[in-house]
Amino acid sequence: MGVDHRMSKKLQIAQIAQRTGLSISTVSRVLAGKANTSEAARARVRECARQMGVLEGMAAGRLLLNNLVVFAPQRAFDERSDIFYYRVIQSINKALAPHDVRLRYCALEEEDSDANLFLARMNEPETEAAILLGIDNPHIHDLAADIGKPCVLINCRDVKMRLPAVAPDHRLIGEAAARYLFEMGHKQIITLLCLRRYTMEWRLAGIRAGWEANNLTFDEARHLIVADSFSARESEALISRFLAERDGPLPSAILVGGDFMAAGTMTALQKAGLRVPQDVSVMSIDAFNLAAIQDVPLTAMHVPRDELGEEAVLMLQQRLIRPHATCGTLLLNGTLVVRESVRRIRSGKSASGVRHNGLYDDQ
Length: 363
Known about the structure:
Distance between the termini: 62 Å
Largest sheet: 6 strands, parallel
CATH topology of the largest domain: Rossmann fold
Number of strands: 14
Shape: globular
Strand content: 15-25%
CATH superfamily of the largest domain: Response regulator
CATH architecture of the largest domain: 3-Layer(aba) Sandwich
Mean pLDDT: 87
Strand order of the largest sheet: 2-1-3-4-5-13
Number of domains: 3
Radius of gyration: 25 Å
CATH class of the largest domain: Alpha Beta
Number of helices: 13
């Protein structure tokens, strides 16, 4: 049974009390998080509130504003230009759906931002709060903090620590991906990354930490291929060139910085007569997690994406309730999705005993 989110809290408490057979005061104490209630009572109240569809609303409360502006790079508003940021914006929309909030947008460059445009939008009377998505300009962060209206950052950082932020834990995500490959027995690993933003540098730092945790040295000259974009076409060209020019053993695994990069990598391997994962394993770090590439289900470290908008809105709610609370950055964990593009290599065994077009060397 659903309950209108505008229903008064008193009516909600009364209905829960009637359904559970508990007193109104007991229900009120449970929902207020008081300790002087029994576990049985807490469980009954939570389950009833969940069934009524009001538990999340009671926990989050109403968003106490009606106008919100999202500042983001121009490409974020075009799905073909930056699907990651585009989907984050959609997740903000979804998180705001239960609330009576008008959402407006303003394109702002990541670094060479138009400060006058930012000030003009922020100082408009109808602008009650803002979300900055991927804006790296420290001057914009200073202005946002000085204006004093609630403001939350997504996937960027305020070096002066005056604004709250939410972002994927890029470094730990990179480290966890590398550690997984090592746990699967891989030692000959090549990493293919696009480093166009510092967040990708953090992922590389995490990958390097994963090597160090296994007492191995990550040598960029031997173990890293840098791409200018996340496109499948460029990745295919880079891996094809690597395979043609290599003078050492074939890697047992390739760790790539995106699902489209994984698609290009698999195409290059296939054209070289190599199979995934029998000859070379491929693992991706991405937010899209394509189900399969060339009929091979893709193992990936899933980067939080849709969760960013939801957490930013919740964080904004907290800023409205506690405007002077200490600011911090919420780093969201990645999720390992194990499919079939990475195979386990048993200790003491080579990656494969098959030679394809003279490209494979036994390890």
